[in-house]
Specification:
mainly alpha, about 170 residues
Length: about 170
């Protein structure tokens, strides 16, 4: 069912995020480089931010660059921040999570814009490589980066499909 109200669309995507991001994290944990993901709070939060960015990419791909998509993205972020506020680990703050989201979005957005139209063919790979550096440090293998990129892309595609009502 296609959601026409942008706020409801954002909330629905937040529910999808909370449902699928943990399952995809479990898939990552089963990979060769997954031990850091499975046990480390920082790595888990990095994955969540990367997955959240995938949801944003899906909202934009499904709805375009417009005021309604902006409202849906705001509602998504509000719902996710509300969920995160109830699951903060000792020593974590919502402000620190917001700052991480902002920093990563700036980085991932720049990666998405690099290379113009020709860069679109490698954006999934380059996003995966950047996320791997944040999640697993320099020890992230090319295979781990590829897996991250593929999971991120599948999440973005699922959101796009939901936004378009497929």
């Amino acid at each position: 069912m296609k959601l026409t109200d942008p706020v409801e669309r954002g909330r629905a995507i937040a529910a999808l995020f909370f449902e699928h991001a943990p399952a995809l994290l479990r898939d990552l944990a089963e990979s060769r480089d997954g031990a850091a993901v499975a046990t480390g709070l920082a790595a888990r939060r990095e994955w969540e931010v990367f997955a959240l960015y995938g949801c944003v990419r899906g909202l934009v791909a499904g709805g375009g660059f417009n005021i309604e998509t902006g409202a849906a993205i705001d509602a998504l972020h509000d719902a996710v921040m509300d969920g995160w506020s109830r699951t903060l680990e000792p020593g974590e703050t919502l402000d620190a999570l917001r700052a991480r989201v902002s920093d990563r979005y700036a980085e991932y957005g720049a990666i998405g814009q690099d290379g113009g139209a020709s860069g679109a063919t490698t954006v999934t790979q380059r996003l995966g490589e950047a996320a791997a550096r944040h999640i697993a440090g320099d020890g992230g293998s090319p295979e781990f980066a590829e897996l991250l990129g593929a999971l991120h892309e599948s999440l973005a595609e699922a959101v796009t499909s939901q936004v378009r009502g497929h």
